[in-house]
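Summary of Year 1 activities. Much of the first year was spent building the evaluation harness for sequence design. The harness presents a backbone, in tokenized form, and records the residue chosen at every position. We chose the following record to illustrate the format because it has been used consistently in internal testing since the harness was completed.
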């Protein structure tokens, strides 16, 4: 009976729970779901990680390739993130070209990397104007149940901490490249951490929303913190939020940082503090 009621009146079903300050999965409005992290999940990749936030699972695999630097940044390598939301992860996605949500997620990750300075892409340069490393970062959603941006960023940063690159010698006169067997770990300067809220009925904020909660929401807002400071605020339209509500989102995001860093430190003792 409850399932039929939920199917026929999904908004009222959620409203009934929120009236008692609880959500359908038993959480309070401002409680996170459990998180899990596993690194080096793909042996053939140069770096990899698997992240779970509730029922949302994202796998990140990183492949490093040698390439010519971009003309506008001759002394820097570059990073190419790509988020894939496959039909296997959720019935809401269809086969074919990347969905709008996947493209938005890829751009979000790219923007955070650019704004946070978590990696210095000059460290990916081997010979200015000649040779750099390119890191292709594939983020594949294995199961979709909300807060996909949080999971993607967490998986990417965890994968970065596992990346090792071969030492390379470049001879400019002969234009020859020698790739050695010795490998050096990628230097990660900081860990940006994302936290998403869903806006319900224009004024109720649900922390770490599930997929169903996001579908019923009138908007979402994702706060990214790096080294305790606001790095990015991503709000793709929807209900407007007051300054006080946004400040509340930031404060709740700060409470997530220690838990995420604890996961990182448990898997990689040399992980920098975020």
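For this record, the design step produced the sequence shown next.
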């Amino acid at each position: 009976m409850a399932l039929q009621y939920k199917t026929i009146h999904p908004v009222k079903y959620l409203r009934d729970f929120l009236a008692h300050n609880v959500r359908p999965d038993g959480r309070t409005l401002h409680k996170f779901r459990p998180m899990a992290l596993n690194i080096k999940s793909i042996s053939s990749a140069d770096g990899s990680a698997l992240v779970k936030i509730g029922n949302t699972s994202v796998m990140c695999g990183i492949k490093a390739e040698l390439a010519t630097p971009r003309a506008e940044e001759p002394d820097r390598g570059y990073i190419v993130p790509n988020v894939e939301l496959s039909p296997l992860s959720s019935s809401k996605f269809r086969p074919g070209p990347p969905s709008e949500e996947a493209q938005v997620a890829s751009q979000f990750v790219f923007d955070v990397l650019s704004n946070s300075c978590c990696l210095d892409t000059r460290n990916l340069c081997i010979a200015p104007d000649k040779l750099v490393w390119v890191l292709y970062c594939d983020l594949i959603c294995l199961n979709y149940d909300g807060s996909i941006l949080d999971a993607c960023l967490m998986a990417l940063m965890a994968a970065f901490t596992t990346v090792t690159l071969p030492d390379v010698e470049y001879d400019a006169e002969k234009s020859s490249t020698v790739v050695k067997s010795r490998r050096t770990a990628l230097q990660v300067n900081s860990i940006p951490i994302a936290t998403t809220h869903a806006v319900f009925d224009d004024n109720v904020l649900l922390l770490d929303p599930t997929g169903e909660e996001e579908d019923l929401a009138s908007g979402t807002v994702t706060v990214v913190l790096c080294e305790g400071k606001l790095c990015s605020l991503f709000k793709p339209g929807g209900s407007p939020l007051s300054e006080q509500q946004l400040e509340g989102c930031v404060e709740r995001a700060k409470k997530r940082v220690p838990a995420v860093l604890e996961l990182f430190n448990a898997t990689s003792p040399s992980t920098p503090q975020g």
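The chain is about 30% helix and 35% strand. Quantitative recovery figures across the full test set are reported in Table 2.
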